[in-house]
Amino acid sequence: MKIALLGYGKMGKTIEALAIKRGHTIVLKCDDTSENDLKNADIAIDFSIPEAAFNNISKCLNNNTPIVSGTTGWLDKYNDAVALCKDKDGAFIYASNFSLGVTIFFELNKTLAKMMSNLKEYTIDLEEIHHTQKLDAPSGTAITLAESIIDNHQKYTQWKLDSNAENTVSISAKRLDNVPGTHRIKYVSAVDTLEIKHTAHSREGFALGAIVAAEWLVDKTGVFTMKDVLNIR
Ligand SMILES: NC(=O)C1=CN([C@@H]2O[C@H](COP(=O)(O)OP(=O)(O)OC[C@H]3O[C@@H](n4cnc5c(N)ncnc54)[C@H](OP(=O)(O)O)[C@@H]3O)[C@@H](O)[C@H]2O)C=CC1
Ligand SMILES: O=C(O)C1=N[C@H](C(=O)O)C[C@H](O)C1
After folding, report:
1. 139 C-alpha vs ligand 2 centroid, how far in Å?
2. Which atom of ligand 1 is nearest to the CA of 131?
3. Strand order in 123-130's β-sheet?
4. What pathway does this protein act in (predicted)?
5. What angle do CA 216, 220, 222 make, to 5 degrees?
6. Number of neighbours of residue 47 by Cβ within 10 angstroms
7. Rounded Cα–Cα distance for residues 63 and 148 (Å)
8. Distance from CA of residue 226 to its chain's centroid?
9. Which residue out of 5, 30, 49, 75 has the highest number of ligand 1 atoms within 8 Å of its CB and is therefore the one to mutate?
10. Sign of CA pseudo-dihedral 13, 14, 15, 16
11. Is 35 exposed, middle or buried (0-12, 13-18, 19+ CB in 10 A)?
């Protein structure tokens, strides 16, 4: 595939190295999409900044270029992106976390929330840890996890950063040097603790998932998730 990288920071560079190893060609790498031409690309992969993501996605859909987006912090415009994709008969996939392990972790979280839903003894504690350059907090992955808990656990109706409020999934966001991404969900009672945790050892897992998603999406039309890519039901 000929790939355009929209955002050539830590993730853009990791994707470039892995995509070349898998036999793909990078035809565009940019940190400013305003002047760039997508016509040579089979597909675009956006790992940029929250303020740029929706414009980058729109530009791809208007240009009939399939788009894989991993940028977090722009989801107030997600429904607009979905509508544009449908209008243009385009191809679009977004994931707050492209790693194959986190895609499975999302399913574990959902199942655990359902199983815990009637157990009033337990309170939840959601923690994410990332590197100090991260612009957004909480992480997109933590928000996806919290929203799934809210959808599947009868007690919880909202999420907030560092909250003691009733019915609230409290998220703690820590920033430490060189942490690629750790997410942990704890259910704590007076007598025990049950926890699930995903630890990324590097950015390669995110990059691999985004490339696998691009390889899968390139000849399709529609709006998809990583569950579609990995055929998880
Ligand atoms: N879904 C997933 O699996 C993952 C998602 N992410 C998310 O991906 C995003 C990028 O992460 P990361 O690579 O670590 O961040 P970086 O800050 O290393 O890279 C972001 C890059 O985007 C560039 N940029 C700024 N404006 C634009 C624009 N208009 N068009 C294209 N690029 C632009 C920045 O350039 P400049 O420095 O010049 O401003 C920078 O090089 C974040 O939102 C992060 O949360 C990260 C890892 C995994
Ligand atoms: O910014 C990052 O680095 C990461 N961002 C994503 C998020 O916000 O969830 C995914 C991953 O945890 C790394």
Report:
1. 6
2. 14
3. 158-161, 168-175, 123-130, 182-188, 193-199
4. Amino-acid biosynthesis; L-lysine biosynthesis via DAP pathway; (S)-tetrahydrodipicolinate from L-aspartate: step 4/4
5. 110
6. 27
7. 33
8. 9
9. 49
10. positive
11. exposed
Q: Which residues does a 6 A CB cutoff place in the pocket of ligand 1?
A: 6-12, 30-33, 47-49, 52, 56, 70-73, 95-98, 140, 206
Q: What are phi and psi of 167, to 5 degrees?
A: 60, 20
pLDDT string in tens for the chain (233-residue length)? 999 999 999 999 999 999 999 999 999 999 987 777 898 999 999 999 999 999 999 999 999 999 999 999 999 999 999 999 999 999 999 999 999 999 999 999 999 999 999 999 999 999 999 999 999 999 999 999 999 999 999 999 999 999 999 999 999 999 999 999 999 999 999 999 999 999 999 999 999 999 999 999 999 999 999 999 999 98
How far is it, in rounded angstroms, from Cα 82 to Cα 225?
Answer: 12
Residues acting as catalytic residues: 130, 134
Question: Of the ligands numbered here, which is closest to the C-alpha atom of 129?
Answer: 2
CB distance 141 to 97 below 8 Å = yes
For residue 47, the CA-to-ligand 1 centroid distance in Å is: 5
Q: Is the pTM value of this prediction over 0.90?
A: yes
Kindly report whether the peptide bond that precedes residue 138 is cis, defined as omega within 30 degrees of 0.
yes
b/e sequence 64-91, b meaning 16+ C-beta within 10 Å: ebbbbbbbbbbbeebeebeebbeebebb
Burial class (CB in 10 A: 0-12, 13-18, 19+), 221: middle
Token pair recorded at residue 205: 């897992």
